[in-house]
Design a protein that fits this description.
The complex is a heterodimer.
Chain A: E1 5-11, E2 16-24, E3 32-34, E4 42-49, H1 59-67, E5 72-76, E6 81-85
Parallel strand pairs in A: 4-5
Antiparallel strand pairs in A: 1-2, 1-4, 5-6
Chain B: H1 7-29, H2 44-60, H3 66-88, H4 96-115, H5 128-133, E1 135-140, E2 143-148, H6 170-179, E3 190-191, E4 199-202, E5 205-208, H7 212-222, H8 241-256, H9 261-264, H10 267-274, E6 280-282, E7 288-290, H11 299-307, E8 314-315, E9 318-319
Antiparallel strand pairs in B: 1-2, 4-5, 6-7, 8-9
Classes of the chains: A mainly beta, B mainly alpha.
Amino acid sequence: MKPEIAVTICQEPSGQLCRGTEAIGSSPYNVQLRIGCPPGTVVKALHHSHPGGLAKPSPADILEAKRLGLNHLCIENDFELRCYKV
Amino acid sequence: MEQPVSENLVLWQYRKVMGELLLTQAHSSDKSCPCELSSEAEYCLPKHLIALQAYAEETMAMVEDEKAKGMLLALAEGANDLRREYEEAEKAERPYDKITEFARQSRKELEPFLFKYKQSGTKLFQRSSIEELKQVTAQIGGLEQNLRRQHSYWVGNADGKPQFIQRYGKDARKEMGTLIEPFKASQNLCFSGEGSGRMELCGGGTKMKQDPLLTRIAEEICTEGVCFAGEPNEQLPLCTKNQAQALERCILEVKVKQPDRCFVEPKAKLEERYYKPDIWIKDEKGKIISSTEEGCYSAHAVCRASLGCRLGAYVNGAREAEV
């Protein structure tokens, strides 16, 4: 199975989206991501993968997103990508 | 008073479930298994999944332990969901990998229940190694934060204690429904044009170097005019007449920038290529960078994302539009 990946999705004041920090995990279940965005942009969403799983956030994903103040979660599995508002 | 079901009978049931799980895993992971050949038409996987569901449901009535009941319920629902998915899928799209993973994880869940009869006094449900795998660490503002994430069908307690129950499909979706609300796509969604692999598409003007990930996110948000695909009624508003004209211009502009192969290959093949995770490659430091290969994408979706509205249906030869 492929390792888990994570990407910070950032937003410029104009509304444009861009990529922030990105990371690739050492296993399908683990990734370490330093959440960060380019200067002048803010964190908009967190994208990460669920290799071999479903394209849905787990309750723990949602709780952590809320705790971190992230508005949106985008999850992808081996077949599809889905975005959710937290 | 009703006698409790003997442990021997429960053990026999667990052994049957274990046997079906092992066969399911073996058959789904081995593409050369003759029972999956079209000439044989044995359909052994759906049969095993039916047997799994039946044994799990039957055993549920025999056990009193709530954890065992939960494990069996999840197993029965998972087997049922996957059987349906298998039966509804085209042959090339059958969920062999999902079934393999499901069988493997379910077997690990079952093992403590099955083997406790041989190891009385053994502490059950030691999941520390699995829990460790689920730990995710994020650093925000220089502070390290512990994130916990799980496969969607590994549902754990929010307080971090393992729940020991493997849930799948319907059960997990039920929980999602209480925690997630749909949202509409942002208006005038644009992507940064800086750096390689970026896309810029604002207000109908088009400069595009495609970022596969951001394009897919835009598509996911806007293909159906919804952000949460489970809510089909949440749609983008209809375009006004001017917006509809801009949208159609945008679609034409985006289409001509797609590689030729996007128009000559079957859609299924395009999706296979487009969604293939290999479009991500990593550099020597492990950072993900996009491959140079251009993918294909939906011009309609990208433009709807840009303009934040959708085209209306044709009525008397003209597009229905917001006025």
